[in-house]
Amino acid sequence: MLLTQTTTPEDVKALDRAELPLLCGEIRHAILESSAAVGGHVAPNLGVVELTVALHRVFNSPIDKIVFDVSHQTYAHKALTGRAYTYIDPERFGEASGFANPDESEHDLFAMGHTSTSVSLGCGLAHARDLAGDSYNVITIIGDGSLSGGLAFEGFNNAAELDSNLIIIVNDNDQSIAENHGGLYRNLAELRTSNGTCERNVFRAMGLDYRYLDAGNDVLALVDTLQELRNIDHPIVLHVSTAKGKGFEPAQSDPERWHHVGPFDMATGRKLCPGHPSEPAPRTYADITGEALSAAIERDPQVVGITAATPYIMGFTPELRAAAGKQFVDVGIAEEHAVTFATALARSGAKPVFGVYGTFLQRAYDELWHDLCLNDAPATILVFGASIFGTTSETHLSFFDISMLGGLPNMHYLAPACMEEYLSMLSWSLDHREHPVAIRVPGIGLVSRPDLAPAEDTDYSTVRYNVVRQGRDVAVLALGDFFELGERVANRLTAEYGIEATLVNPRFATELNREFLDSLAAEHRVVVTLEDGILDGGWGERVACYLACTPVRTRTFGIAKGFPDRYDPNELLAQNGMTVENMAAEAVRLLNE
Amino acid sequence: MLLTQTTTPEDVKALDRAELPLLCGEIRHAILESSAAVGGHVAPNLGVVELTVALHRVFNSPIDKIVFDVSHQTYAHKALTGRAYTYIDPERFGEASGFANPDESEHDLFAMGHTSTSVSLGCGLAHARDLAGDSYNVITIIGDGSLSGGLAFEGFNNAAELDSNLIIIVNDNDQSIAENHGGLYRNLAELRTSNGTCERNVFRAMGLDYRYLDAGNDVLALVDTLQELRNIDHPIVLHVSTAKGKGFEPAQSDPERWHHVGPFDMATGRKLCPGHPSEPAPRTYADITGEALSAAIERDPQVVGITAATPYIMGFTPELRAAAGKQFVDVGIAEEHAVTFATALARSGAKPVFGVYGTFLQRAYDELWHDLCLNDAPATILVFGASIFGTTSETHLSFFDISMLGGLPNMHYLAPACMEEYLSMLSWSLDHREHPVAIRVPGIGLVSRPDLAPAEDTDYSTVRYNVVRQGRDVAVLALGDFFELGERVANRLTAEYGIEATLVNPRFATELNREFLDSLAAEHRVVVTLEDGILDGGWGERVACYLACTPVRTRTFGIAKGFPDRYDPNELLAQNGMTVENMAAEAVRLLNE
């Protein structure tokens, strides 16, 4: 096996030229086999095997600097820079991070997982090189899907001002996670079909030199082209056409569903549900969101679903998208546009619902502040994955959302404790015309608790916490999907300590129910807050601050800010003192102080 | 005077065609005269007088929807939609907001002041129109300077997918606030010199129809062109060439310095210092920043100043920029790129310093989180204007910064109390290689207090609050530029109530000095915090939360979150209970409870 002996970029350079296609085949097989076992970004990685081999054949990493945008397509790169074990040794499958990670290798320059950053990073690397009087190559790879993000454009625009070496490789597989959206993609298609010769050329128009290579999965052609570009003295775009999912028929024919997958059967392509290989996947908040929104769209021509290239997170399958017509808009990877677009829709009487992962909503902080909230536009934002039980990669942590949204005026941020409450809030929000509303979709799997969403209590326009159980001495305020964890704390206080604690479902993640908090002091001496997010700027901090000038003692439980990577959520809870035992004991300790 | 009788768009339509140039002249004179008296965005407004008159001649606002990007160039629009008084009646000069404001008029569709939003807003307006089955025109105006912001590109890319009316007017005056930067601008220049006919065309490349008009200050030519575009059935870019500062020689020949000005002498163009017309402007934090950074640049080839189109806020005059050469980079209006670019520079051993207004840094929230902080890149961010004494327009409030940055791991956010401490922190930060550092440049004018920045205490790598005066019972923790306000509270506690309070300069705006806070409890029962920012997610909240499970009572003073507009800072303080008298009285009340 070539791959076991080709562990460094030097090894790639030492191979016979004729061996390169064989190496590519072995890498492809290893990626498939390891992904079948532990899941992964299958389709993106299969597409860039040849490009990656060619890069390490031609350039001299880490002296030459190679930056992969998003970096979820770095499996081949990792295999060739000392980390083949994670793809060929079944005992070590999944051991390396799924993203670039400087802690793993000097060939990974940045930790990253969000899109559209690589050109700006390349500009910085090139400028630093020039300041230091060095002369290495800087190569950045960016996928066509990532081009629609505004940051990428800012990078291209600035790259054109550089008067030194920068090679920007546009890896064009004609596919974002779902299909691409925007006029730019018509230009890419025209460039592909004209073999790069058509008059319209967005890269040339932005002042960049340009070259096209159709054979993006031909390693020898790539080597030859890169060899010619090596040491070029100005910025150039190399536009290569690759096939997403290359070499694995199921992924190549349905790259959207094969963008990122869990374990699957290599022979059939059938996906397996981890732990229960024979059962279908359980229903999710995505499913019920897609169903509820599709029904609303059918009922009301003003309802518009919006996604920034991730329709599946809100349950919008290709079928539901087609059925929704103009009432479902995929803006491509462009969260900023999504929020500003939703602002104008909402101000014009429409009822936009933008569904987005918490981690990607970060891109639109200013648009939330300056467009949506300043204009008090009654749009709905559904924040998915906002939980320590969401993605556990440091690059995609989504539990900073309360801290991020907490400073925005005018917005309600609702945190439902169960699916019934979530659907009730979503339904209310569609018809609410006063303020922007964001909903923190629970991150720990569907929980049915009809008792928490009484049918007569479906107005969320004033901040009112729901007292689920009235007690005394200690009050447990447990936000959103951590309500049940708080319930267990309250139960333990009774069972272990004989304390009948008050148990509250606060429902509002950033606003205080001041009357309720004022009334607490009469019969409570200790308040405990729980939230599925960081403490700094979070909800508990706000509660604690409000009570800090009263005799009530408050202890907040949440996650210390930081970038934990590939953590075990339950271990993270324990590290932050969030075991039921410890939280109950802390309440009792404070009570007895 | 035509202008006094032309108060609505209908009036513009009723004028004889030959009167239109006269109306333009009157509007220009009124803008100049009112701006000379009260200041304003002189150059941008002078450039679009003809365009605005033509828009209201041809289109039927508010049925047709007109959106001005940034909206600091809406003076002519305001004059023609019922608000001429604010430009022609000396008693009412400055009465209307300097930005679009829906509370003033139904012709102002959105409150806005940040750039690059108008195309996305136009897409939303057009989509809402199409959903409702209406047929009005949607017109968005965007300046060339705003084109470099990524959101604008996201908007253009999505606009190309629209299959209905949208007229995007690119108001090209070949000038951002300072000069333009990026490859895009070479294309705009080529388009201007070729009268729109050159092969390279960034708008066509993005899939948009395109038309060029060189005579952007010829009202009749504009009317004719817009008339042809009215009711067009698809998106089109109308690229018009205008002259920034048109009709006022000082502004036309130096549009950077005339972008926004205070009062000036109309005859000579000499700028007046408000209140002291005969004296030169006082020195500012911009001045000392420019001096300190220029010296560092001369000393150390790795220091790089970065601006996103606002070099003057960090004191970089055209002369200092020229002297810095490659060590000063203006990325254009592109805050996202600036942060990601700085990340790569810092990770490559360079020492980037990005100076930015707090309100514009919001654009880069995700890049701060995902690029800078996740990669722990030792860049420096100088946050200017972050104070209630900064810009008082609701669109540009810059005192949300602590709340915004407080959730970011790895970053130190320093809040100096005076100029000596600021310079000490800046100097330390340049050589600090561990973490990203942001510095909250004081917002209330240069304060010299050498006593607060002892020469032996210039290491800010560990969080340590500076106890300026040791007392007991009450501790006053007063952050950054509110230190002196806190000092006055402490002094009043002594003078009025005989309480020798402890007085602390905390220096760190988002991090807790836990040892110090733990030690407080021994001799203090009340802690008062002051900060020049919003309370929600702010610094005081963090302190209060930390102390909430101890017997110490904490009262936080800061600003309630909201969008106050054109407020008086001292009134805002009073509304938030931040008079010296009230803060001292509150401390005493809590002490006696």
TrEMBL record, chains A, B:
Cofactor(s) this protein requires: thiamine diphosphate; Mg(2+)
Superkingdom of source: Bacteria
CDD domains documented for this protein: TPP_DXS (cd02007), TPP_PYR_DXS_TK_like (cd07033)
Gene Ontology annotations of biological process type: isopentenyl diphosphate biosynthetic process, methylerythritol 4-phosphate pathway; terpenoid biosynthetic process; thiamine biosynthetic process
The protein's annotated pathway: Metabolic intermediate biosynthesis; 1-deoxy-D-xylulose 5-phosphate biosynthesis; 1-deoxy-D-xylulose 5-phosphate from D-glyceraldehyde 3-phosphate and pyruvate: step 1/1
Gene3D superfamilies: 3.40.50.920, 3.40.50.970
UniProt keywords, alphabetically: Isoprene biosynthesis, Magnesium, Metal-binding, Thiamine biosynthesis, Thiamine pyrophosphate, Transferase
Principal EC category: transferase
A Pfam family the protein falls into: DXP_synthase_N
PROSITE patterns (alphabetical): TRANSKETOLASE_1
GO MF annotation, one: magnesium ion binding
GO cellular component, one term: cytosol
E.C. number: 2.2.1.7
SMART domains membership: Transket_pyr
InterPro entries named among the record's database cross-references: Dxylulose-5-P_synthase, THDP-binding, Transketo_C/PFOR_II, Transketolase-like_Pyr-bd, Transketolase_C, Transketolase_CS
Domain Transketolase-like pyrimidine-binding positions: 283-449
Subunit architecture: Homodimer.
Protein family according to the UniProt entry: Belongs to the transketolase family. DXPS subfamily.
Record's protein name: 1-deoxy-D-xylulose-5-phosphate synthase
Originating organism: Collinsella aerofaciens (strain ATCC 25986 / DSM 3979 / JCM 10188 / KCTC 3647 / NCTC 11838 / VPI 1003)
